[in-house]
Please model this.
Amino acid sequence: MELNAERNDVAAIMREIGVKARKAATTLANASTKQKDAALLAAAMCVRANVDDILAANELDVADARKNGLTPAMIDRLTLDTKRVEAIAKAIEEVAALPDPVGSKITEWDRPNGLHIERVRVPLGVIGIIYESRPNVTADAGALCLKAGNAAVLRGGSEASRSNKAIHQSLVEGILASNLPEASIQLVPVTDRGAVGEMLRGLGGNLDVIVPRGGKSLVARVQEEARVPVFAHLEGICHVYVDGEADLAMARDVVVNAKLRRTGICGAAETLLVDEACASTHLAPIVQALLEGGCEVRGDEATQKVDARVKPATEEDWRTEYLDAIISVRVVKGVGEAIAHISNYGSHHTDSIVTANTRTAERFLNEVDSAIVLHNASTQFADGGEFGMGAEIGIATGKFHARGPVGVEQLTSFKYLVRGSGQTRPS
Amino acid sequence: MELNAERNDVAAIMREIGVKARKAATTLANASTKQKDAALLAAAMCVRANVDDILAANELDVADARKNGLTPAMIDRLTLDTKRVEAIAKAIEEVAALPDPVGSKITEWDRPNGLHIERVRVPLGVIGIIYESRPNVTADAGALCLKAGNAAVLRGGSEASRSNKAIHQSLVEGILASNLPEASIQLVPVTDRGAVGEMLRGLGGNLDVIVPRGGKSLVARVQEEARVPVFAHLEGICHVYVDGEADLAMARDVVVNAKLRRTGICGAAETLLVDEACASTHLAPIVQALLEGGCEVRGDEATQKVDARVKPATEEDWRTEYLDAIISVRVVKGVGEAIAHISNYGSHHTDSIVTANTRTAERFLNEVDSAIVLHNASTQFADGGEFGMGAEIGIATGKFHARGPVGVEQLTSFKYLVRGSGQTRPS
Model:
């Protein structure tokens, strides 16, 4: 892709990217599994072969990041080493190893008039990904899109521009080696300001969906401004509700894992709700396990009473995704109030109930309006890999098309194939 | 619903409708199949019981329509009689008889750690329908939405306002008789100008999808301006391609049926493509059958030669949805050129190939990027009823969520239910 980055006409550059992507998507839609997998395996090999170039590019990005005063967490997300580059290559190979969703039969049936109807998966078309810092997204997202027969338009953050370019170069080498169109995966030159705006407007009808990967402000802007469908979650305000009939040891293990296994992922629990029916026995040990695990606990009045280290929770706490070792805790009047709290403050992402009562569990599973609802399991299972779906491009909390983990299957649409023997429709 | 139609603040009225709809949707999402079906059956009974009121209201609408000089076709679509009212009641009963999609398992699997994952259907939420003239849409759309557990916000055309109000009244009586929320199906007071605009902006986050039912200008406006997902097709420029290896009698029957069975429906064929390999034998008899069926034929040069009655086709003809007894005809160089023509001029709705060659058929089925692709069958089968899906709210040509006929199943989303026994995720 030789774009003249000197040109000022961002709209024209982006239009060109859109047109090329649409053309590539048409070819990719009819590419064989073998050809797509060969491209991915070649891309993984190229990533390995180009490790020195990728690390050299990354070093420049990291040096700039330090100079520009990025936070240590951001610099960590940005930094590559040989191990992380190998992980990028391996992740591409894992995507290649997934079953190809394209052409697979979702369902089929016969009609009384002899027509045979099949519903088969087809690619969505052109997918735009707008992301920040982590350079591995370049490879992960590009590979997933290609596997599902879609063209990808990638727009990474300026802080990772050299790293992304080097990784993208390897992807393109693999794609060309397999005779697929160079524009199957395009990287938008980050020097073009306003490119994101053009993507949000849909590249003149040539972008079918946008996936934002990054902080809340990025996702909020994309959800607010995009004129094409968006697969995303703004935040994961995930709850664990410990029911009156919960086993204490199980409840404690699930809560501690849901909150503390990793605090920075979207499936981490942010609020614990405890049934008043078991508060006298369950609340103190669970709160203490959290405190001992290094978690700050912000509780309602009842929770503040069980341990002096508990800080008071404000109304704001129930709406906050900490992404940190902090949890808000509230005592509720049974499953009904738990469901109402989640409906009021939740983000339709992932919520869990711990209870030995199946009927209570079924009510929670049915009535909580979230992408993923669990019974007796940690919210940290909210992950495409943990679901057995392979790699994911993200988690969606919208109700359209994709909900929950967005893997290769969710990056497809479908069409109806109808086979007959000359049937005409009676008047 | 007692809305003060005198109020000038349309935004406030619509906001109120949105809030009520969202609240009703929460109740409907957890309503039992029995309760929803009872509401629908009661509504059908009320339509029958109120037939005099409905016909009296309709008479006033029709009188105004005549006064306002509406076309005979529009007046016909608007006019009700006892037979048409009975058909409305029967259609509601047919929706009640459909299987309830809500709660049905789409798929389920076990994970090695013992987690059992189910993907089950849930309602979409609140569905807005913007429609013109036909008053039966009030009942059809309202019933389909309710069956799938969704709240409906209906905005009919002003020409049918009294008819719609009378039918809506019957629906509400049925809903209340079954103890479901009155706001399960709301009719927007048409006196409020700007109501459509408010719906297109999504009623403050309380509208999840919009379905336009009406002419091209309505659909175009909705697709252009809606800030929420839209299920629609702008037009159905459907093709029949007669391949060189097509049986002549079959090709002729399929083409005549696809074009002439009903010319005003979206699945009617608008363009015939004939392979040059069989043009010398097949073109003339097919064209003559069309002409004898009362169809105007507009052809390319080759087609003009076979019959003096064939008029010349212009570039514009290939892009035109006639919805009338007119067809454009072109001779192409095999299936590749047919696919290219459809890709260039088609509307991704419904296209058919007639051929005895299975390989050629498979290529056409795979490469034509339309919601419905048929082999040896008429395009007029593009219909939810003909697919065995029951009633449909329309046909969608977009690739997101719903594609092809939009029935009760397509008016649902899904969620993941994960059942465990205390599983926590390892670090």
Summary: The domain at 10-231+406-417 of chain A is CATH 3.40.605.10 (Aldehyde Dehydrogenase; Chain A, domain 1). Chain A touches chain B through 63 residues (CB under 8 Å). The two ends of chain A are 54 Å apart (CA to CA).
